[in-house]
Write a structure and sequence with these properties.
Strand content: under 5%
Distance between the termini: 41 Å
Order of helices and strands: HHHH
Length: 88
């Protein structure tokens, strides 16, 4: 979900420690951890509900449609059409 490594978290912890002080920094990090846990649980709940409610055929169709609409595929389609019509 979040693409962050240990170094980023270490920098955040050091800055929080310097700005807030040891007691408030620990409380803030604990609160951030609790909020992150609740957010992950909410996302997992939504994902579980979507998987339960949507049939897999519809999910695959939506996935194929999203794949077809990606910008890189638009360029590929233009190139295919140009080659197919003899302009490429």
């Amino acid at each position: 979900m979040f693409d962050s490594g240990i170094m980023e978290w270490l920098v955040v912890a050091v800055v929080a420690l310097l700005v807030l002080g040891p007691e408030r920094a620990l409380a803030a990090m604990k609160m951030a951890g609790l909020m992150l846990g609740k957010a992950k649980a909410a996302v997992a709940d939504v994902q579980q509900q979507v998987e339960k409610d949507l049939p897999m055929a519809e999910v695959q169709l939506l996935k194929d449609n999203v794949q077809a609409l990606r910008p890189s595929n638009v360029k590929k389609k233009v190139v295919e059409l140009a080659v197919g019509s003899g302009q490429g």
